[in-house]
Amino acid sequence: MATTMRSSDALFSPLEIAGGKITLEHRVVFAPLTRNRCLPLEKDDPEAAHYNRIWVPDALVAEYYSQRTTEGGLLISEGIAPSLESNGMSGVPGLFHPSHLAGWKLITSAVHAKGGYIYAQLWHAGRTTTSPFTGKPSVAPSVVPMEGDSGRAPPGHSGPVNYADFPPLELTHALIRSTIEDYCSAAKMAMEAGFDGVEVHSGNGYLPEQFLSSNINTRTDEYGGSPKERCRFVIELMQGVADAVGQENCAIRLSPFGLYNQVRGEQRIETWSFLCEQLKKVIPRMSYISLIEPRYEQIHSYSEKDQYLSSQGLDPATINLKFLRKIMGDTPFFSAGGWNDTNCRGVIGSGQYDALLFGRYFTSNPDLVERLKLGKSLTKYERDRFYGPFPDRERGYTDYSCWHEQQEKENSNGSVTNDQSIRVAEIENMFHAGKLFTTVSALKAKRVPELVSEGVGDQIIDYTTQSPLRVLPPQSVNFLFDTTGEAMNLLSLVVASTSLIMSVATQPSGAQLQDLGIMDRLGKPKLPWCILIGLNLVGSGRKFYAGRSAVEYAF
Q1: pLDDT at 474
Q2: Does the annotation count 206 as an active-site position?
Q3: What span, in angstroms and rounded, lies between the C-alpha atoms of 250 and 198?
Q4: Where are the alpha helices (H) located in 329-460, listed in sequence order?
Q5: What are the residues whose beta carbons fall under 8 Å from the beta carbon of 314, sequence distance 6 or more?
Q6: Domain spans of the chain, in order of start
Q7: Which strand (E) or helix (H) includes residue 342?
Q8: Whole-model pTM over 0.85
Q9: Kind plus residue range of the DSSP H or E element containing 17
């Protein structure tokens, strides 16, 4: 039970977003992740004006998103540039060129084909990019360049460039209006491409948060000088996007206590409280709000973060997002930042958040939702394959296996594999089963962990020492996981019409077959054809017998 998360956990309960237009089947959200796997638009023409500056998603990117899609699940796209000058890295896609529309339709179609939902995250790098990357000057609320170098070589350069050599332009009022128009145009294109909504990235030190941060925004006009004025750009931006695509189709991401990209603004509580109050007032039907956990820090220096928070009069040990949860009221409240298969348990049930975003573990576990639900171990992510571009784009991107595929490889010596065994937790959830039990002998006990996820069984009875008919009352079991012979003897225990019996062994006795070594692969028992015919006849008879008791029987 230590690693198993039952389907009864609130993490796997439905959630309405988008003003009730969308009902998610679970609350495990695929976080926005920059992967730099898109292709250059003019890859074959080095003399083209935007060579290696406009990047387009293709079929490989569609496969990546499709692999991580579940029925009724929500995915948030990687950061998408709403304009040429807003992009900060090679391999990052946009939503401002006709080729982008066609490319993103591949992704949204793939997600919808599997019953999922996907939002486009609009991302403007602001001062964190430079003109060598985009071909245009970068912009920011004030002429306050980043310190250090870009860390990556722009097109036409052999190495990183210094930010100080390419300071950003201060956004004039006219440029502020045109920047908001870029966002709105990108949002409309996103909806045309089939996205279910748009999320405006207003955290992690990118353009919107640059306006919110006093160490970057040094303006003295109506866009700077106090928490109220520093919030003006973000509020006007969100109003514009909401007007463009509808309130219920827009969302926002914030990092109120983040330090990423050299954000060191003061008055954190006052600034983000005012911002959320205004957002709730002017966009009351906003789809959701997504926030990065205060405890999580992308600069990978928690001592620096603790020191900074303490300098602002904030206690690093107790700081949380409850004050914003209260302000946002019934707006779905998402949390991102360091969630894994251990610390996510019970969080949704506590009422602290409405959904949790998973990022790094989704990169290496395309079936993360199923793994969390069934308590399967997670594949460790490869940090050095997070960010491309790479010549071998698929490696560390679309080449990860699902848990049952991994286990099949590990058990290639002939033991029970997951695609051949009975995935009881899924069946139990499908039939909304209540009580589940199995009877096993001592000889079969070693097979149970291979067939039943840990913690799934409500009761395990060794029928060599106890009789289930004496231990359990009649019609008290919803799901019977047993051998064929025992299943028929225990029909009186099963609730009629609403239950399922699943047989996992054949006759002769399971113990004999295991001893003979011919039941190593349950899907393909090595039995003579005459015995197989006899077994099928027996199975048909038992199915008829079970049907008389209004119980479904599978052999």
Answers
A1: 74
A2: yes
A3: 5
A4: 360-364, 368-374, 403-410, 424-430, 448-451
A5: 257, 268, 269
A6: 10-400, 424-554
A7: none
A8: no
A9: strand 15-17
Q: Average pLDDT over the chain, rounded to whole?
A: 83
Q: Among 47, 119, 81, 368, which residue's Cα sits nearest to residue 207?
A: 81
pLDDT in tens, 173-210: 999 999 999 999 999 999 999 999 999 999 999 999 99
Integer CA distances (angstroms), 302 to 259, 295, 305, 402, in order? 10, 8, 5, 33
Strand partners, 356: 28, 335
206, 308, 397, 553: which one is catalytic? 206
Among 343, 385, 377, 335, residue whose Cα is nearest residue 360: 385
Alpha-carbon distances of 187 from 29, 33, 245, 270, 287, rounded to whole Å: 21, 19, 7, 29, 14
For residue 267, give the H/E element and its range: none
User: How far from the centroid of its chain's Cα atoms is residue 545's Cα?
Assistant: 45
**Which residue has better confidence, 540 or 242?**
242
Q: Which CATH architecture has domain 10-400?
A: Alpha-Beta Barrel (3.20)
Residue 179 phi, psi dihedral angles, 5° rounding: -65, -45
Which tokens go with 181? Answer: 């128009």
DSSP code at position 38: P
User: To which residue do tokens 């707006």 refer?
Assistant: 331
Q: How many CB atoms lie within 10 A of CB 296?
A: 16
Interval 120-141: pLDDT, tens: 999 999 999 999 989 899 999 9
Instruction: Give the mean pLDDT of 85-114.
Output: 96
